[in-house]
Structures are given as C-alpha cells and as structure tokens.
Write a structure and sequence with these properties.
single chain; 143 residues; alpha+beta; three-stranded antiparallel sheet; 3 helices
C-alpha cells in the first residue's frame, strides 16, 4: 500500500512541477516574444501557436550543440504555417532576422535560442492535450 501511495505522491509532484514550469515558461516566452520584436510580425502572442512549428537558422538546436553558431549562416526565426486548402500547403514566414550569425551578440543569439526552446516546450503540451482529446472516443469503447 505504501508503495502505491509513494508512486501516487511522486506522480502528483511531477505533474504539479510540470504545470509550474509551464506557467513560468509562458511568462518568459511572452517577454521574449516582445523583446525580439516578434510582436510586430504576429498580431498577438496567442496567434504564435497557430504556426505548425517555429525553426531557427544560424544556430544549433540540438541538445549536444545547443546555441552553437553555424558559420556563414544568418540568424533568423522562421515560422511554418499550414493551409490545407491552398495549392502550396506549407509556407515559411520570417518572424525575425538578425543578420550574419557571427556578427550577432552572444546574448541576443542565446535569447533567440531560448525563445525557440520555450516555444517548443509549450507547443509540445498543446500537442499532448490535442491527442488526449482525440483519444476520448476510444476510451469510451474500452471502459
């Protein structure tokens, strides 16, 4: 019994820590959204999540090389929109352009990388919620 209770406590702690991290992430993401001037390209912070994805050129987003610059490239935040009714389904949109990555201050480059990671963190929660909702009809069949 104690083992089941311990597992429940651990799970509850993990869920609450994820929710706290998510709330903090959203506050910081919104701050960086304005700081980087993305608010001038996207009409509202909430609309940011209408994009299928947001990518980065000019710096690495892999965990092993996070933030490492790619010589000769341009630091740019690119959003991918998707319109299933259009003849060209996906479209890249530049949300922010900072010039040659070698010439960008390290602190700015780091904020750009942070923005992308924070966006993806929140987007992953939204995706999880979406698929959780989509599973609803299947839960009824089982239970």
């Amino acid at each position: 019994m104690s083992s089941a209770l311990d597992r429940l406590k651990n799970l509850t702690h993990k869920i609450s820590s994820y929710e706290m991290a998510r709330k903090e992430n959203m506050l910081l993401l919104k701050e960086i959204f304005t700081e980087l001037g993305i608010d001038k390209k996207v009409e509202s912070f909430e609309k940011l999540f209408d994009f299928k994805a947001i990518n980065l050129s000019g710096a690495s987003l892999t965990s092993e090389h996070l933030g490492e610059i790619k010589e000769g490239k341009y630091l740019q935040i690119l959003a991918i929109s998707y319109d299933k009714t259009a003849s060209v389904k996906s479209k890249n949109i530049s949300l922010a352009y900072f010039g040659r990555v070698e010439n960008v201050e390290s602190t700015l480059k780091d904020r750009v990388v942070e923005f992308i990671i924070r966006y993806r963190f929140e987007k992953s929660f939204m995706t999880l919620e979406h698929y959780h909702t989509m599973m609803e009809p299947f839960r009824k069949k089982i239970g």
